[in-house]
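About this split. The held-out portion is used to measure sequence recovery: a designer receives only the structure tokens and must propose an amino acid at every position. Recovery is the fraction of positions where the proposal matches the reference. Here is one held-out target exactly as it appears in the evaluation file.
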């Protein structure tokens, strides 16, 4: 099977590293490398730099390239790197080629940010990127509930390097139908809404899930995927209960604090600064103690 290594890497905990910022607002490179080493030492073998937990849309083009370079340099052979790319087609293609030239194995294509996304245009957008880097595995990031599975199949017919899907529509029944309409066995299905949705999505065919929580507690995320792989849903739900409040805080107010809560937990552990960039915001001091207590309770 083509892209065997990449397919196997997607059927796992797909970690989305945070991007730490220095006091002057720049990317804190040494801290970022330390956070990557912590993930790798914790057993994580698939990394997505420039994901949403990495504040992709708040980074400049130069910073996105820097994050890609730091990740690939620090990771070496220890993990498979799935680089987030997006924005307009020329920018996404340039980012994908940059990742390829550095040695990345895959790219994840962020959903098109445009007020008018047609189904055929969605296919055209992803086709242009995938065909520009045929050597790389390509993973569309799907958040559009209106997109039918047949469109993904159409894309893969034209681009055999489209090998996996990060599916992030919060509807397990819709995911089950979409995956079967696109081809359940044709793609690696990654639950793109992380641990809270992983059990329900695994029951419908997912074999991997993304995680921002993994930045804080790699062992917790690994415990969940091991339970899911073995079909032990009661054990998986015990992990679900363990992380429930943390993920509720992240999801509050339309996920306004998605990255904020992760960085706050890391700050409470002395691992990075809590700063996030607008339009995100720091967690108010009145809410920080709860996040710190949760992180401390995971015995990291």
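Reference sequence for scoring:
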């Amino acid at each position: 099977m083509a892209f065997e290594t990449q397919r196997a890497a997607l059927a796992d905990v797909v970690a989305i590293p945070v991007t730490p910022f220095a006091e002057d607002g720049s990317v804190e490179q040494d801290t970022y490398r330390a956070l990557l080493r912590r993930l790798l030492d914790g057993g994580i073998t698939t990394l997505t730099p420039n994901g949403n937990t990495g504040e992709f849309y708040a980074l400049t083009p130069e910073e996105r390239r820097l994050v890609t370079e730091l990740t690939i340099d620090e990771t070496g052979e220890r993990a498979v790197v799935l680089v987030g790319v997006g924005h307009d087609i020329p920018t996404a293609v340039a980012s994908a080629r940059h990742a390829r030239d550095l040695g990345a194995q895959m790219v994840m294509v962020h959903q098109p940010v445009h007020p008018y996304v047609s189904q055929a245009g969605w296919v055209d957008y992803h086709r242009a990127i995938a065909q520009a880097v045929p050597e790389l595995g390509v993973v569309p990031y799907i958040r559009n509930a209106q997109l039918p599975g047949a469109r993904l199949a159409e894309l893969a017919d034209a681009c055999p390097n489209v090998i996996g899907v990060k599916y992030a529509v919060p509807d397990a029944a819709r995911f089950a139908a979409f995956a079967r309409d696109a081809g359940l066995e044709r793609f690696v299905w990654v639950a793109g809404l992380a641990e809270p949705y992983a059990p329900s999505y695994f029951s419908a065919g997912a074999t991997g899930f993304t995680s921002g929580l993994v930045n804080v507690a790699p062992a917790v995320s690994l415990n969940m995927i091991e339970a899911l792989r073995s079909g032990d849903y009661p054990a998986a739900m015990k992990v679900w209960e363990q992380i429930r409040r943390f993920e509720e805080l992240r999801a509050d107010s339309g996920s306004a604090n998605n990255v904020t809560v992760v960085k706050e937990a890391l700050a409470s552990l002395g691992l990075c600064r809590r700063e996030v960039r607008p339009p995100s915001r720091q967690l108010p001091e009145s809410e920080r103690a709860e996040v710190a207590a949760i992180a401390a309770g995971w015995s990291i």
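Annotator remark: The domain at 4-217 is CATH 3.20.20.70 (TIM Barrel).
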